[in-house]
Design a protein that fits this description.
With about 140 residues, this protein is α+β, with helices and mostly antiparallel strands. About 35% of the residues lie in helices and about 30% in strands. The protein has one domain: Sandwich (Jelly Rolls), CATH 2.60.120. It has 3 helices and 9 strands, in the order βββββββαββαα. Strand 1 and strand 2 form a beta hairpin. The protein is globular, with a radius of gyration of 18 Å.
């Protein structure tokens, strides 16, 4: 990590570089200052893209779990890491209803990611079974 003129650590990733992969320890969430980041399921399905002003990678540190997906720089990126400690502190001091909503959304996000990949696999199997000669 490098230090910016504001004393906040920043990291830079070149297009195509992995930021983290499934199974990595989740010590940080990331704020996207510049660029775009692709989010992939464990099987390589593109689940979405995160851009400037957005945060990704918050699920693992918030729930004390390892990374469940892979994040890759879609463009050259400048990111600001948000430590697990900072993330948990902000969650702890939030309103209890907001904490409950956040936890629920993080758990649902993981479920949706897994279901998306399962659906994609099933779709690929079904399309591979059909042929153009089914007339």
């Amino acid at each position: 990590m490098t230090s910016s003129k504001f004393g906040i650590n920043q990291v830079k990733f070149s297009k195509g570089k992995k930021i983290y992969v499934k199974g990595d320890k989740a010590d940080f969430a990331f704020y996207v200052h510049a660029g775009k980041v692709n989010i992939y399921s464990p099987g390589g399905l593109l689940l979405g893209q995160v851009g400037e002003g957005e945060i990704f990678g918050e699920r693992g540190p918030s729930l004390d779990e390892s990374r469940s997906i892979t994040a890759e720089a879609a463009t050259n990126c400048i990111l600001y890491p948000i430590s697990e400690k900072t993330l948990k502190e902000k969650i702890k001091t939030a309103d209890p209803v907001v904490r409950a909503i956040l936890r629920s959304l993080l758990i649902r996000l993981n479920d949706i990611n897994m279901k998306s990949e399962d659906f994609w696999r099933s779709l690929n199997v079904m399309t591979s079974l059909s042929t153009d000669n089914d007339d």
